[in-house]
Amino acid sequence: MKITHKLLIPLICILLTYCSSEDGKKRSVYVDGNPKTPFEKISETISGSVPDSKMRAIVLTFVGQDGDPHRYGQIFAEKLTTELAKKKKMILLDRFVYFKKVKESGMSLHSTPDLQTIRQLGELLDVHLVVIGIVTPFTNGYELNCRAIEVKTGLIMGAEEGFYADRAN
Questions:
Q1: What is the CATH number of domain 32-165?
Q2: 138 forms bridges with which residues in the sheet?
Q3: pTM for the complete prediction?
């Protein structure tokens, strides 16, 4: 197939118009080859909302919309704990290290948190924040909605959401 000048010139004009801008600067498209995971995104926002790096926190098991622990709840909580620890913006308690202490007190890291439970966990573990996560299933993954809750007041100090793609489906 021959390309005629009548076709080539408009194509070149369109290409030049697309690649330049009004200020004459060249624009390029950048595709991040290493996009943030939902846990990196969530941890960035949550850790950025913490006013003091000496604040202590623990991440609870993620629950479903019904309040029951989600089947990936422990995994999601561990991933978020790791990402928050990498940020070094707060002091994080390891879930496994404190699991026995919480269990012996009759409480759980796997239950739906209410204000009384959050306050009791705060007192028991000497934490300022409890991070909770709610999982909503979608056909191709899970919507994760996380909040850092101040234990004394029950106020949300920071919140973020992310989408975890289920590659198995």
A1: 3.40.50.10610
A2: 141
A3: 0.77
